[in-house]
């Protein structure tokens, strides 16, 4: 018979308070970024927001091109316009939000942030990587329907 590993020691309350404080700071920073992005349209020429260096250097759209504009549109409730700027972001955002909320909840309670990328099946990670690569290639192909994927 194999010996079972003992239960991990409980996390002290002060550590949980520190975690909640860090989460509070992260929430404030995220909120400030959202307010800034809500007020400053990245589509306006001369915007203080950075442009994609890959697109500037090569003329190709990376998988993230249009994400800032898509987030700006989402903050204004314009879901269709956001999907027009970056369909991959608009499609993945609900899943990312759920995973972030779950991880934040676990972190605040002093639990390990699960699922960690090392615990996800390799085929999921390879599938995600393949989806991003297909999106990257497809949005740079000329003509319909691919031209609709460009930001």
Concise synopsis of the structure shown:
The protein is an all-alpha fold and 151 residues long. The protein contains six helices and no strands.
List keywords for this structure.
6 helices, 151 residues, mainly alpha
Describe the structure.
The chain has 151 residues and is mainly alpha-helical. The chain is built from six helices and no strands. The chain has helices spanning 13-39, 53-58, 67-75, 79-85, 87-108, 122-138. It is globular, with a radius of gyration of 20 Å. The model has no long low-confidence stretch (mean pLDDT 83).
Q: For the terminal residues, how far apart are their CA atoms?
A: 60 Å
Roughly what percent helix? 55-70%
Approximate shape: globular
Mean pLDDT: 83
Major sheet: none
Figure out the total of helices. 6
Note the run of SSEs as H and E: HHHHHH
Q: Estimate what percentage of residues fall within beta strands.
A: under 5%
The counted number of beta strands is: 0
Q: What structural class results from the helix and strand content?
A: mainly alpha
Q: Which stretches are poorly predicted, pLDDT < 50 over at least 5 residues?
A: none
Rg, Cα atoms, Å: 20 Å
Task: Itemize the secondary structure elements and their pairings.
Layout: H1 13-39, H2 53-58, H3 67-75, H4 79-85, H5 87-108, H6 122-138
Helix pairs in contact: 3-4, 4-5
């Amino acid at each position: 018979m194999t010996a079972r590993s003992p239960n991990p020691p409980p996390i002290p309350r002060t550590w949980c308070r520190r975690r909640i404080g860090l989460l509070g700071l992260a929430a404030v920073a995220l909120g400030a970024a959202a307010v800034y992005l809500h007020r400053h349209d990245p589509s306006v020429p001369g915007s203080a927001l950075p442009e994609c260096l890959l697109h500037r250097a090569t003329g190709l759209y990376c998988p993230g091109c249009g994400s800032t504009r898509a987030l700006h549109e989402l903050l204004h409730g314009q879901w269709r316009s956001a999907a027009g700027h970056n369909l991959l972001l608009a499609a993945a955002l609900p899943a990312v939000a759920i995973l972030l909320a779950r991880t934040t909840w676990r972190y605040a309670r002093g639990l390990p942030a699960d699922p960690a990328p090392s615990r996800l099946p390799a085929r999921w990670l390879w599938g995600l990587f393949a989806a991003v690569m297909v999106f990257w290639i497809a949005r740079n192909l000329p003509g319909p329907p691919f031209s609709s994927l460009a930001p």
